[in-house]
Amino acid sequence: MLRLGLCVLGLAAGVIAGRAGERPFRTVGPSAGADCRTVQEAIDAVAADNAAPQLILLQPGAYFGHTVLNKPHVTLRGSGPATLLTYNLGQAIPGADGTPIGWQGASALLITAEAHDAVVENLTLENTYGKGMQAQACSVIADRVSFRRCRILGWQDTLRLEAGRQYFSDCYISGHVDFIYGAATAYFEDCEIFCRDQGYITAPATPAGQAGLVFFRCRVTFPYGNPLVYLGRPWHESPAATFVQCELGAGIRPEGWREWNVKPPLVRFAEYACSGPGAVAAGRVGWAMVSAGAPPPQFNRPAVLGDWPLPSEAAP
Question: Which of 7, 58, 148, 312 fits as disulfide partner to 78, beta carbons 3.0 to 4.6 Å?
């Protein structure tokens, strides 16, 4: 059984209201007070050219299916782990036309390029397909998307960050093979990364000049037995993944990183001031940076995310 991240366990299961004076655009759920029965119905009601923040509140419950967020300035706010967007297909499964549905079609939540300035908070995203095929819980193509206090659960390719910039705060992300991957720039702060079995945490495909995947003050945890896991392997372009002041569990392989499609010196993998039994530098590969000192300033959150003022925090 999955362990919930400590940050998520602190959520009150019944909390769904916004800040004082904040009125939802739509409320979704099976109970009294709901405007819509499905999340997609609420999203579809938002204007395509929407320019103002629109809050969609999700009552506790399991919302099964493929949900597409394709409108800008939308917040999806759940009531905690009991608010669940779930799907069970892998990307090689054929669709209605007989061709594979692909990573976009397999995602429990797909956030398209039109959905910039989105916020997803206080809910669970999961793909329950299991091992043996890439099966995304969430895929993001949009710029400036924030995730707060979310559980994102899967096995292979759990979280695809295809483009833009994303920020993750107090989230719990699980998987076993390449389960955080893609070409986007993303900053993970105070998150728990749970490695369900042997594999690789990251598989970046970062364009040259971008920061890639940066993990700050995160915990990398394992089930009983500590299955051996690499911090990452390079997928495409000039892959970049950096762990800063992270606590690395005992399942991290001594070499830390593994070669794959891209060879050094194009690969940009680094660890700075990490701790824990998986942070021993002695066995690390020679082409990755490992330092006990503070990271260079380019790995600070403002430097990574650039000219993006994060949206104000709502009470959990």
Answer: 58
Q: Is the dihedral of CA 26, 27, 32, 36 positive or negative?
A: positive
288, HSE (Cβ side, Cα atoms, 13 Å): 26
pLDDT band for 315, please (50, 70, 90 cuts): very low
Tokens (6 digits) for 96: 């209605």
Q: How many CB atoms lie within 10 A of CB 52?
A: 9
Using DSSP's 3-state secondary structure scheme, residue 186 falls into strand
Q: Measured between alpha carbons, how far is 17 from 33 in angstroms, rounded to an integer?
A: 12
Q: Which amino acid is at 95?
A: G
CATH architecture of the domain formed by 1-167: 3 Solenoid (2.160)
Is residue 190 part of the annotated active site? The answer reads no
Would you state the structure tokens that stand for residue 263, as one six-digit string? 């060879």
Catalytic residue among 117, 143, 170, 178: 178
d(CA 80, CA 84): 9
| Domain range list for the chain | 1-167, 191-296
Q: Is 157 a catalytic residue?
A: yes
The Cα 54–Cα 118 span in angstroms is 9
Q: Pick the catalytic residue: 157, 170, 197, 307? A: 157
Query: How confident is the model over 139-165, as pLDDT tens digits?
Result: 999 999 999 999 999 999 999 999 999
Q: Where are the alpha helices (DSSP H) in the chain?
A: 6-9, 39-44, 102-106, 301-305
* Contact (CB, 8 A) for 136 and 161: no
In sequence order, the β-bridge partners of residue 272 are 244, 291
Q: Indicate whether 8 pLDDT > 80.
A: no
pLDDT over 70, % of the chain: 92
What's the confidence (pLDDT) of residue 20?
A: 52
CA gap 150, 60 in Å, rounded: 14
Residue 88 has pLDDT above 90, yes or no: yes
Q: How far apart are CA 248 and CA 251, in angstroms?
A: 8
User: What's the confidence (pLDDT) of residue 10?
Assistant: 38
